[in-house]
Amino acid sequence: MIQTTSASFSRVFDDELLVVEAWGKNAVRVRSFVDQKRNERSNALLPRPEQENVTVIQNGDEVELINGSLRVVLDHRDRLTFYNAAGEVILKEYIRLRAVKHDDGSEDAGTIEVTKDFNSTLKLKAREYRANLTGSFKVTTRFESEPAEKIFGMGQYQHSFLNLKNTVLELAQRNSQASIPFYISSMGYGFLWNNPGIGEVTFAKNLTKWEMQETDYIDYWVTVGDTPKEILHNYSDVTGKVPLMPDNLLGLWQSKLRYRTFTEVMEVVENYAKRGIQLSTIAIDYFHWPKQGEYRFDEEYWPKPTENIKVLCEKYGVEPLISIWPTVQSDAKNYQDYLENGFLVKVNRGVRLTMQIQGNTVFVDMTDPKARKYVWDLIDKNYVAKGIKYFWLDVAEPGYAVYDFDNYRYHKGSDLSCGNLYPLDYLKMVFDGLKDKEQVVTLVRGSWAGAQRYGALLWSGDIDSSFRAFKNQVNTGLNVGLAGLPWWTTDIGGFHGGHPDDPKFRELLIRWFEYATFSPILRMHGDRLPHSKPLSDHGGGSMVTGSGNEIWSYGTEVEQILSKYLKIREALKQYLKKLMLQAHEYGDPVMRTLFYEFPTDKKAWEVDNTYLLGDALLVAPIMEYQANQRQVYLPADETWIDLWTQKSYLGGQEIAVEANLEQIPLFVRAGHKEVVEQLFDVIKGEL
Q: Does the predicted TM-score (pTM) go above 0.85?
């Protein structure tokens, strides 16, 4: 049975309720509910916008919905096909079933015609539910695949691929992995998988397949656009946009494994001030607290926090960034409060111990609004009231000691059914607490679709300090932007390891810093070797720290190079402010693939490890040890100016660019004088 409204249609048949609705500009939302049990869940999406000029037409067993440039058709075989304004198929469900004909010549709904092109004996449905022992279902959703299609977005995965076609991606949060299941296709559409359960997507040549391990519904959203920019704008309209980045955060963010006292923090800030460098933030990292879950300063090592924070902000103009974890130690003074109120993540088997660091710990259930309120009340009292504006949500995946997703239960359901909502709700806690006071920017390790509207600044997580890890980050950061998250940053030099006296690591740090200068946020962080001894055996003094990670920690030559790039960053600030405004108003990423700005240049769709900062600056990082040259493609129909040599090149060609250790290949589109002039002045003075 098919029912229609002015902007939607639904079909009830056997064990399924299928609902297709116009949802935003040139877009539809598709939902399937097993056993016809409809349940309203927003997940990544904002409330449905008012829809105008939508057409719904039913013709017997077939029905179609037209919303602007997108047309979706449900045929009598229960297959959805999506068309653009030109009538071209952009996406089609995959089914392989034999048609069952009756005496009157009719066919059963939910079947497909038998042709030479289909192996009907496969008996595969597009939307498949298989009951499991949990009372829920393993769900598979299949689409036809175009082998030449290119796929971009999907969040942060630690591999080197920009084009995600022919990859298999886990739909789950891990340390350094952030699943954001939205992608942009070279075929002119965008696709959001709006189910937050744990699963997997396969972008194969012969099939696209989304699999959920434990759920009872399918939910996805499709849009079309003439350009990737239009597609991403459509997505941002229905999932939200980032707040406006405060101007004072566009400089250097300083961090190391952890500063242990206010005295250490003040010494670092003073040393930067003596060098004429204005820091944006300095991180007060983990174990500034007595016990996890108490959310307060250990005043034995961090005395008089209100007074010291005031000095940082008013005397030095530096905002402290406070690290908080969603963990509770079993010996915290308020552990019993969490336990009695049911605020902790539950386990299905074994001892409830979800991570061990400086004690036995359990994660707070951030999907529970009461738990979030309890935690925020502590944060508000012990941090915000003392002058803290910005937070660093570490271990926000959550970072389980063992990623046994089937073992954890939340207020909203099992981890398998809704686990990707955990970092989203964690971010929402901070956003809701601060939105009436501040422009919210929250550094976070973990994310999901829609996180941008809560001020999420995703970073690369605890990656290795190696050229290989560095090379992974360039394309990864671009895919994060195309997944709808405009703010992204990395640990300059990587997190794990790196000795300040190691020449190879010094080179890595320089190349990474050069790259990060042309990213949304410039951030020094890492666990440098060797480690110190703890200050004490208790509280905030019981955790080790690493070696220095300030720009002077790596010798005079390194400091001189990094200082030059800090001047370049300063010259970029006005331009970055414009890009941050575009991100806020439209959802544009700050770092952009070449095809994002040059979609008609076919070669631009093939180029990776090269990007545009906004629409004017082309950046081609050096990512190999002892390399001093790389090939750079310049997009067609433009003239490009090498910022180091001031030589002009016609676009549409690949050139070999020399780049010694002090230089990163950098080009400006001719005609963007406001950017050229600022950077030329700095670079001329440094050459």
A: yes
